[in-house]
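Hey everyone, long-time lurker, first post.

I ran two proteins through the pipeline my lab uses and got sequence/structure pairs for each. Pasting them in order. The first:
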Amino acid sequence: MNIRLTNLWPAVSRRARRGVLVAVTGFGLGFAAPAQAQTDLSGERVNMIIPYQEGSGSTIHGRLFAIGLEKHLPGQPTIIVENIDGGGSVRGINQFAARANPDGLDIAAIATGTFFQYLLKDPAVEYDLPSFRPFLASPFGLLVYASTDMATSDDSVENVRQLIENPPIYGASGPTSSDLPVLLSFSLLGIKPQYVFGLSNAETRAGFERGEFGLNYDNMASWAQAVKPLVDDGTARPLFTLGFEENGKIVRDPMLPDVPTFLEIYEAINGKPLEGIEYEVWKAAFNIRVMGSKMLVLPADTSDEIVAQYADAAEAAVEGDEFKTEAAQATLGEYPQRVGADAETVFKASLEMSDEARAWLFDWLESEFDVSR
């Protein structure tokens, strides 16, 4: 994309610009503000809300893009990152929805928890997720692995059969958190772990390394530094990835092409592919957890021009030299970054869940984890 936007406003401060708008509308002068919002952000401060703690994957991802956006947005504004943790992203995104203005000076990071809390109708959710304006979607694959004590074969299918017969202890945050797609995958395969809830990903991995848990999963952003060493030293064996969607089909994760996908394992175990309502629910969870894993959005009512401006800047950042560093590549992996209309397609797919599928998911959560509606 190379969209040129006309600068209709001078580079004044946010407070001054809003003051002018209030004055114009207050006196009722009979004409509307310019259709295109300010595009030159010289001297401005853009606030980026990241609804997770410092050091989280969303924070690392958000700070990387903050650097790129600062360089490529018109006027090179300063981007201030604000971490607002709590409620699986609900606290920070509630604040974003309530306070952000559609003038290009507020953006937010959303992730798996943002979608699940909205789709599962968490009473704490006050944001209207479909009204947000996405401009970037970063896919992240996911790997499930087991201890070599629990999975003794070199064959993933045989290892899954062992875990079905001998359920492991598994640590997780909770059934309605970002763990949901993995817990659903275990359930569909017939693996029934003994769950220990209330733990972060870092805590579960540490417990796995100490031998307290026999099963774990990690985002592929953690593969090189945290998971591969466990595989190399014989502590862990990969079982399956959730895969990656390419041209409408779920294929093997590009970062681990030798590891089968969940759908491959399911078919091998059951003698038939996953289908029907179970597939619809699993695919919706997959869209959220993998294809829409980390996204950057503008608030509701942001103009198409400002959204395009941010999409252009994100695309320029991805293609720039600063994103070709080893650290950037480790953060983004080998996944194509989706900007603009492509990001919106991922966003909408992550929100698609029929009433029947939602009812099935609620019934499953209640029967498996005693989670009431």
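...and the second, right after it:
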Amino acid sequence: MKFTATQIAGILEGDIIGDPNTEVSTLSKIEEGIEGSLTFLANPKYTQYIYSTRASITIVNNDFEAEEELFTTLIKVDDAYKSFSKLLEYYDKAKRNKVGIEQPTFISESAKYGKELYFGAFSYMGDNVKIGDHVKVYPNAYIGDNVTIGNNVVIFAGAKIYSDSVIGDNCVIHSGVIVGADGFGFAPNKKGEYHKVPQIGNVIIEDNVDIGAGTTIDRATLGSTIIRKGVKLDNQIQIAHNVEIGKNTVIAAQTGIAGSAKIGENCMIGGQVGIVGHITIGDNVKIQAQSGIGRNVKDGETLQGSPALNYGDYNKSYVYFKNLPKIAKTINQIEKKINNNE
């Protein structure tokens, strides 16, 4: 896929300094630029590389003025970093702009889908499925019965969407994600044997949600497991049955959230955090990596540790904890002196 300087400048509303017909087909770091690649200069620390880079096109800020000879065509914009990010987004969409239904696939006769759909080979669409416009379902993906999917959704290869799940607009579901598997519900009898409790609820994923590879979201026992608008989930996260995550909350990899926990809006949760079931975490909460949350958390708290403490209290306590052998030794010495004086 090739783009000319003229095309790129048009997308970014920038000005060309150099050959408008210069073509690029790949991206590069400015210090590693090769002919045919596009790069950018935003950090002044890297200015030296613009004079040696062999990248064919470089995006720069409007205030950049060359002090030496350049081998690259410039595109001047208000903010090089933001413009490059915009171009990455554009390139990513263009790269994934697949349309059509590959074979073999299975599409139930009762399924309904919108325009400009991409359905990859060996994928499956069950009974009464409803899919909106501009949806892309990559190969080997599974969409179970009665699933509803909105517009502009991307479901990558190998993802599994179990029956009755609801997915909103503009969502991205990466490879290996499982939405709607049974929650972990078993009831013991008098003999100590465990019998499965039927999980008859579903999963609701609202608009603009990103779900990282290998993440699992269990269906509710009754009602719904709900992921609110704008939530961003990293890879390999476990979300149990009847959990609710508030809008615009972000969660890093390997976090586990037990059943019926309620997490508020605009929270930031680090990697490998464990959250027990049936608690409520407020809005704007920050939880440091590897923390264990076993209690309700108020709005705006920042926590660390296991069991988690207030972030400030944890840091103060840790100073003593790491010196605990010295403190214990001092206490023992004081006890000996007291005992000798007796």
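Reply from user beta_strand_b:
Welcome! Quick read of the second one: Residues 264 and 283 are 4 Å apart (CA to CA). The first helix runs from residue 5 to 12.
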